[in-house]
UniProtKB/TrEMBL annotation:
Protein name per its UniProtKB record: HTH-type transcriptional regulator CysL
Organism: bioreactor metagenome
Similarity section: Belongs to the LysR transcriptional regulatory family.
Keyword hit for Transcription regulation: yes
Domain HTH lysR-type residue range list: 1-58
This protein's UniProt keywords: DNA-binding, Transcription, Transcription regulation
SUPFAM superfamilies in the record: Periplasmic binding protein-like II, Winged helix' DNA-binding domain
Signal sequence segment: none
GO molecular function: DNA-binding transcription factor activity; transcription cis-regulatory region binding
Pfam families given in the database record: HTH_1, LysR_substrate
InterPro entries noted in UniProt: LysR_HTH_N, LysR_subst-bd, WH-like_DNA-bd_sf, WH_DNA-bd_sf
Keyword Glycosyltransferase: no
Length: 295
């Protein structure tokens, strides 16, 4: 079986389109179609249903797709581990959502290095959705994400629970109504971010949409948002994890919104069929332990 054909099949399923998959693989559409047909002939079954709306898996295709995910994951791990041996080093690449990656994870990495001094660690900061995409693309094997809908190929284990807190500079601590919330100048995470989706779902349960709020602008970084509200530019919903120092020192003040509670989990995520390297296994175990030392 040609790995190239499996990769083409996997990419076509991911994009749900032969034309988009061909572009991603730098192939012509006829060339990609020929590879898919060759794979179907080898399997003795039709794997994809093609239509003007795209492609979707047949029952036989679902079986082959699950094996393709496993085989491609193993191939990627083999390449990575061989490269690691050739370079005579242990490399650990972690994709993390920004809330954890910018604030809590550096302390954990520092402590982890005390136990595993020979591991070379790199952290890539991105949104939770981007972490999942990198896992799906086999770019990374471990990620840290907030709660969000997951592809069936991805599994997660909870690291800790957190909550979104409405905060502002020199705000009067107390409780406000949803109507009063509508009047506050808010700075929120960008559309599509896991933090914003958590807030949207909580507001929707109260019959309120983000478009009804006074959002003055959006930012992609929780750190940038915190800097803005620390300067007195507005208010924001931020994870309590990144507000520990500010709330303790009183530089930012929490505001309770009547009936609005936004709790969520931080999770370590990986592909279900991934074969983790030794240092990846060690880190996954460490981040779940009481030794992790989140700042």
């Amino acid at each position: 079986m040609e790995f190239q054909y499996l990769e083409s099949f996997y990419t076509t399923v991911k994009y749900k389109s032969i034309s988009k998959a061909a572009a991603a693989l730098h192939l012509t559409q006829p060339g990609l179609s020929l590879q898919l047909k060759s794979l179907e002939n080898e399997m003795g079954s039709q794997l994809l249903v093609r239509s003007n709306k795209g492609v979707h898996l047949t029952e036989e295709g679902k079986v082959v797709y699950n094996y393709a995910v496993t085989m491609l994951s193993l191939k990627g791990n083999v390449k990575r581990d061989l490269q690691s041996l050739q370079e005579n080093s242990n490399k650990l690449l972690i994709g993390s959502c920004r809330s954890v990656g910018e604030y809590a994870l550096p302390c954990s990495v520092y402590l982890f290095k005390k136990f595993y001094t020979d591991v070379e660690i790199q952290i890539k900061l991105m949104s939770s959705h981007e972490v999942i995409q990198k896992l799906m693309d086999h770019t990374i094997n471990l990620g840290i994400v907030q709660d969000l809908p997951l592809p069936e190929e991805i599994t997660t284990k909870t690291i800790m629970t957190d909550e979104l807190v409405l905060v502002g500079k020199n705000a009067v601590e107390g409780e406000i109504s949803l109507d009063e919330l509508k009047k506050l100048p808010l700075i929120l995470r960008e559309e599509g971010s896991a933090t914003r989706q958590l807030l949207q779902r909580a507001l929707a349960e109260k019959g309120l949409g983000v478009e009804q709020l006074n959002v003055i602008y959006n930012l992609e970084s929780p750190g940038a948002i915190k800097s803005s509200i620390s300067a007195g530019d507005g208010f924001s919903f931020l994870p309590r994890l990144i507000l520990k120092k500010d709330l303790k020192e009183g530089t930012l003040n929490p505001i309770k919104v009547q009936g609005l509670n936004v709790t969520f989990n931080y999770n370590i995520a990986y592909r279900k069929n991934v074969v983790l390297s030794e240092c990846e296994k060690n880190f996954a175990e460490f981040i779940h332990s009481g030794r992790r030392g989140f700042c």
